[in-house]
Design goal:
CATH class of the largest domain: Alpha Beta
CATH architecture of the largest domain: 3-Layer(aba) Sandwich
Helix content: 25-40%
Largest sheet: 12 strands, mixed
Order of helices and strands: HEHHEHEHEEEHHEHEHEEHHEEH
Distance between the termini: 39 Å
Radius of gyration: 19 Å
């Protein structure tokens, strides 16, 4: 069983093998809150944290708190007495919520010149990008012979009960897909969801539970990332699972990290942010996070030829998301509950 599938199953069974960085917590320990897959023994952390500790002499304690949304929520709850120094996983869709909560401090990391301008989604430098990807519908090519070519095609009767999605209230990919439909259909996105409803088998609470259902054969299509096939090619030597290119483009997710306002170890946090943009960190992203590194000068492995990189990138202004997302989610609930 491949590493991604093993990780998914561990999440489902409640036996997540979190990676523990060397060194116990102390007054001199950098505390990082992150999402589960980053901290897993198959994730990015085991590759980069030991190297950071060796280079800087700074000990790291990783705290894995589920999804990126939960990372932010934990920091918000601790706002008056911060325990973390760095938050990993604040993306372009969560940026507005993080800013509204006021939990991050500005820092212009060394190495930003290596990052293309279109990935710098926070002009205030409270969040620094380290990788990116695109949401996509992944399909089982042994079951689906004619995959959908756009969002509207997903509503076709031949795909009845064939699609697994995620809840935008609890899942980053779920929120990303909802925003994808908003960006394409504007005010008519709820009508689209009503048309889409017959195609949906289930709406999972997280990416891990949804992708686990997909790989176990419960449905032949699932919401994931355009890079997901890379994992199966690189680690399972299988090209069975493919990303369906959509004509209207794919919604973009840019992952970032930020320093907590009032961080107990500010200088150590700055050192980590600088390290995050270094070649040593960036070159490990492709086959651990299975995403595109923010530094586009990093040479990608051959398996990335199986990833869809759309010509048209869809994204929304973080300020618009902040103002309208609550209303959009309420409308979404109404559409899917009928």
């Amino acid at each position: 069983m491949g590493r991604l599938v093993m990780w998914v199953m561990c999440c489902l069974l409640g036996a997540f093998p979190a990676y523990a960085a060397s060194g116990g917590a102390s007054d001199e320990t950098l505390v990082i809150y992150t999402y589960d897959s980053f901290a897993s023994e198959w994730g990015l952390a085991p590759k980069v944290i030991p190297l950071f500790e060796k280079q800087t002499g700074i000990k790291v304690k990783l705290v894995s708190v589920g999804s990126s949304g939960q990372v932010l929520q934990k920091a918000i709850l601790e706002k008056k007495a911060p325990r973390a120094d760095v938050l990993i996983g604040i993306d372009n869709n969560l940026l507005a919520k993080a800013k509204e909560a006021g939990v991050l401090a500005a820092y212009k990391a060394k190495g930003l010149s290596r990052i293309p301008q279109h990935l710098l989604f926070d002009a205030d430098h409270e969040v620094t990008p380290f990788d990116y990807g695109y949401f996509a519908i992944i399909y089982d090519s042994e079951v689906i012979k004619t995959p959908p070519t756009n969002l509207e095609a997903l509503t076709d009767k031949k795909y009845e009960k064939s699609l697994i999605l995620m809840d935008p209230r609890t899942s980053g990919p779920g929120l990303g897909f909802m925003l994808w439909t908003v960006s394409v259909y504007k005010g008519g996105f709820t009508d689209y969801w009503r048309r889409l409803a017959p195609s949906i088998l289930t709406i999972a609470d997280s990416w891990s539970s949804g992708y686990g259902l997909f790989t176990s054969g419960e449905a032949p299509m699932v919401l994931s990332y355009s890079t997901s096939p890379v994992y199966h090619v690189a680690f399972e030597k299988s090209s069975r699972y493919k990303a369906a290119p959509f004509a209207e483009g794919h919604y973009m997710q840019i992952e970032g990290a930020g320093i907590v306002k009032g961080a107990p170890h500010r200088k150590a946090a700055e050192a980590f942010m600088d390290f995050m943009l270094s070649e040593a960190f960036q070159r490990e992203i492709a086959l651990t996070n299975i995403m595109f590194p923010a530094n586009d000068e990093v040479v990608l492995p051959e398996s990335f030829s199986h990833a869809v990189k759309p010509e048209k990138e869809l994204r929304m202004d973080p300020s618009e998301i902040m103002i309208k997302s609550e209303g959009w989610i309420d409308s979404w609930v109404g559409a899917v509950s009928r």
